[in-house]
Amino acid sequence: MRPTMKDVASAAGVALKTVSRVVNDEPGVHPTTAERVREAIERLGYSRNESARMLRRGRTATIGLVIEDVADPFYAGLSRAVEGVVIEHGCLLLSGSSGEEPGRERELVETFCARRVDGLIVVPAGDDHTYLRSELEAGTPVVFADRPPGAGLDVDTVLADNVGGARQAVRHLMVHGHRRIAFLGDDPAIFTAAQRLRGYREELGGLFDARLVSMRPPSSGVIGDDLARMFALDDPPTALFTGNGRYTVTTLRALGGRRVALVGFDDFELADLLDPGVSVVAQDPSWMGRVAAEVLFRRLRGDVGPSEHLELPVRLVTRGSGELSPDQAGARG
Amino acid sequence: MRPTMKDVASAAGVALKTVSRVVNDEPGVHPTTAERVREAIERLGYSRNESARMLRRGRTATIGLVIEDVADPFYAGLSRAVEGVVIEHGCLLLSGSSGEEPGRERELVETFCARRVDGLIVVPAGDDHTYLRSELEAGTPVVFADRPPGAGLDVDTVLADNVGGARQAVRHLMVHGHRRIAFLGDDPAIFTAAQRLRGYREELGGLFDARLVSMRPPSSGVIGDDLARMFALDDPPTALFTGNGRYTVTTLRALGGRRVALVGFDDFELADLLDPGVSVVAQDPSWMGRVAAEVLFRRLRGDVGPSEHLELPVRLVTRGSGELSPDQAGARG
DNA sequence: CTGAAAGCGCTAACAC
DNA sequence: GTGTTAGCGCTTTCAG
Questions:
Q1: What SUPFAM superfamilies does the entry give (chains A, B) (predicted)?
Q2: Contact with chain A for residue B317, Cβ under 8 A
Q3: Distance B48 CA to C6 C1' (A)
Q4: Does residue A251 belong to the interface with chain B, where contact is any CB pair within 8 Å?
Q5: pLDDT in the model for residue B219
Q6: Nearest CA of chain B to the CA of A89: how many Å?
Q7: Backbone phi, then psi, for A149, in 5-degree steps?
Q8: Which CATH number fits domain B5-48: 1.10.3720.10, 3.50.50.60, 1.10.260.40, 1.20.58.760?
Q9: Euclidean distance between CA atoms B34 and B42, whole angstroms
Q10: A49–B114 CB contact, under 8 Å
């Protein structure tokens, strides 16, 4: 069906190996012979079968990326950055979304491994990664991004400063006079959510009040109810800290124009165009992706040093919503 | 290094083929034997080498997806939908972003083809796809999404109703009393931009005024200048039609709170939370992705009917900005 | 500079 | 039920 090297070889009247040399730009082929081979390649429309090459060489020039959901802007940005580095290194990217399901994460990782990806970048959904043990022993480098692996796995990790970022957000609100600061975030089973809760709690100290904390899976759709419950308290919150981009948006929608001080974790498009502009603790998903990919390729180049645990700083961006004072709260904007 | 079927076979005291049978759930293996093989697989930590399998079977169970940029919400949504269908069919997705560069699009497509992807979904950046000819002849199905292929290529295509959507947007603004409607969009070399300009022009008829059209590459950063120029006219626009999500956002930012009627092509997160809410002609990127993937798998299943050319309807979503009357324009919001 | 032979790990086709 | 053989298309090794 498709022409193979053998076909090209007989078309050009040379041996298989000579074609291989030409295709791979190996030295030691007479220019005239090379030209004849190239002409045959062109004429037959030959293109090297990478599957065969991979099998023989034992390298696939493929990196596997498991994220939570490409449609989420954070992971989309991360993916794009990973892709950039991967392409720069002459590799291709196999990617998949776990949808926050540990089973799917594992399935994806195992499928990628069966394809013998040269390396793996994983944003884990689960917290048991013992299934990766044999792959690591086989020498495949793995980098965890955004969230660390489950206990007992010593691999490179690139995280954001979740605790510090949360503390920064809460401190900012406190500086602006708030004492009743609510936290709305994801299920604490998720690492980043738990870390941000921790930072929130640490910074709040004695002001912490469990009634001002709502952590629900994003699908539950009850953030509005939780908010209503909090606002009905004798001492309602005057400020909100939302645990990630999705919650910030959901919360803004649930507020329906009600003016409350708010700082969100994660930056998002149009945060500056809302009224007031939404103050956020911004992560840089591209940076995280790039760093994770670079660590991976360093390993691929043979770096066998101890595992790296990077924590990327985050940045408070003030746009108005986080600078409202407690007495400005409550009014309908 | 890694255990192979041969290793498993000798560990279990059976022949290679028996291991293959067990691994592939082929019938005709005695339960006891199968159990022994499974035990050996478990003990050695064996996992089938898919590269070898691909080479032998001639199918890679891989689909290639070329888009413009994963970090763009439209393409992120499309990717996610494609991924869903691909996984459902037991395949994996190789994806890459062309960054709107025809050269990169071609490179990606050719690399994917060298890996012998079973099928290809392409959002083209260029308009010459003759390089795909040989691949199509080799039997690889290709589906174009969002934009059609260059001349002379008869393949399945899934597009949105760009002309109709643009007409709908302009008509809506006209119904609300506007006669001076500007169009801000992408370089007309891009299919969707050209189609939307066409719809805009058709619907506007005699009211068309070239001075109210600005089509620039998104990188140029001069949308604000163009807008200023238009507003400085004797008969400035009272309404804007923006050609895609990115332009809508850039335009809103450039307007800096100035109240002008506006309808944008493409829906976007938070469009409802801005003041006024942004009216849009909404496409459904997930739908487009799903449909494209389904058409592809139908081909893969052997459908050899004439090429399909699907046009997905779009939907006008009114949120306020598109319902402002001409005399409400000009004020600072 | 060029070529022949072996074999990567698997599956297909056919024995037994 | 099970095993043997050939070979997918390429790279590696070694021989000329």
A1: lambda repressor-like DNA-binding domains, Periplasmic binding protein-like I
A2: no
A3: 23
A4: no
A5: 77
A6: 14
A7: -75, 170
A8: 1.10.260.40
A9: 12
A10: yes
Report residues of chain A scoring pLDDT below 50.
Answer: 333
**Superfamily the domain A58-160+285-313 falls into:** Response regulator (3.40.50.2300)
State whether B80 and A97 contact (CB < 8 Å): yes
**Distance from residue B39's CA to nucleotide D11's C1', rounded to whole Å:** 34
CATH number of B162-282+317-328: 3.40.50.2300
Which pLDDT score, from 0 to 100, does residue B333 have?
A: 44
Which pair of tokens denotes residue A254?
Answer: 């649930």
The answer to whether residue A93 neighbours chain B at the CB level (below 8 Å) is yes
**Contact across the interface for B272 and A253, Cβ inside 8 Å:** yes
CB proximity A42 to B under 8 Å: no
Q: Could you read off the pLDDT of B236-245 as tens digits, one per residue?
A: 999 999 999 9
